[in-house]
Write a structure and sequence with these properties.
alpha/beta, 7-stranded parallel β-sheet, globular, binds nicotinamide-adenine-dinucleotide
Length: 276
């Protein structure tokens, strides 16, 4: 049996300097938890943590560096106490008309950050949690982890991988008191969506709406979170259609244009940031 955790938790969030991670840190701190915000951009993470107040602290950590992730979590345990929840949120998404037109460095980086980075965080957190038989790992995947997305092949590959990894780890640690939550957002209004097209059937969430779903899962331990509900149902439906029909549905609903008909000028700053 796992110990029941009551009261405030110590929660590490990767990629917490911006977007969904930042919004999640704000909500979890407001709810009385201690949040440790890590990001590739440590200065921004520290500045945002300072704005949140005493319950937050920001650090620079590259999730692709397994040793750095381990050392970061060990530092958190020394300075702030046992890590109760690890939220692997850091991620990038580069849009390209097709995989041949994507810079191979970005293709690799997408897998390194979104899949291997989240695996690093999961493994190193569970290593600390397992002896205590208590803890939760929240992995932020995507609906692109259950359906293919035109223009986002590497991203979709990384998120399919992360969904499979998370679901498998849940089975491996089900009787060891470790909870796994797989988050599968639809489009969320962050830098990641800059300059993309829209589909009349796909609504865009505010980061705070997605963050509320993640923060609620920290309270409930829910195994899967997908918002908005309408996009989850659409993606589930497409995932079971015969591929030829799925292609047509993607075309009629304009979903296939979200990441292929992009405004390069509006997207330039985001694409430049993630390629650094
Ligand atoms: N925005 C969406 O539409 C959407 C949809 C589905 C899933 N997601 C997922 O949500 C997560 C957060 O995305 P977001 O939209 O908030 O993006 P964002 O760009 O606003 O924030 C991502 C953060 O991750 C950080 N980061 C990037 N590489 C890192 C690394 N190697 N180590 C540590 N931090 C790193 C960035 O510096 C940035 O602050 C991602 O995993 C993303 O794939 C986003």
């Amino acid at each position: 049996m796992s110990e029941q955790q009551v009261g405030p938790k110590t929660i590490v969030i990767t990629g917490a300097a911006r977007g969904i991670g930042l919004a999640t840190a704000r909500i979890l701190a407001t709810r009385g938890n201690r949040v440790v915000m890590s990001d590739l951009d440590g200065e921004l993470a520290a500045a945002e943590a300072e704005k949140i107040g005493d319950r937050a602290a920001g650090f620079g950590v590259d999730v692709t560096d397994r040793d750095a992730v381990r050392e970061h979590l060990e530092m958190v345990e020394r300075e702030f106490g046992p890590v109760d929840v690890m939220i692997n949120n850091a991620g990038i998404a580069s849009a390209s008309p097709n995989i041949l037109e994507q810079d191979p460095k970005i293709t690799e980086r997408t897998i390194d950050i979104n899949l291997k980075g989240a695996m690093n965080g999961t493994i190193e957190a569970i290593r600390l949690m397992e002896p205590r038989r208590r803890g939760q790992v929240v992995n932020v995947a995507s609906l692109a982890g259950i359906i293919g997305v035109k223009g986002l092949a590497a991203y979709s590959a990384s998120k399919f991988g992360l969904v499979g990894f998370t679901e498998s780890i849940r089975l491996e640690f089900a009787d060891k008191g470790i909870k796994l939550t797989c988050v599968m957002p639809g489009p969320v209004d962050t830098g990641m969506m800059d300059g993309t097209s829209s589909s009349p059937l796909v609504s865009m969430l505010a980061p705070e709406e997605m963050a509320t779903g993640i923060a609620d899962a920290v309270t409930t331990g829910k195994p899967r979170v997908s918002l908005p509900r309408s996009s989850w149902l659409l993606a589930r439906t497409i995932s079971v259609l015969p591929p030829a029909i799925g292609i047509r549905v993607g075309h009629w609903t304009r979903i296939d244009r979200i990441y292929t008909e992009v405004d390069p000028a509006a997207r330039a700053a985001y694409e430049e940031r993630i390629s650094r």
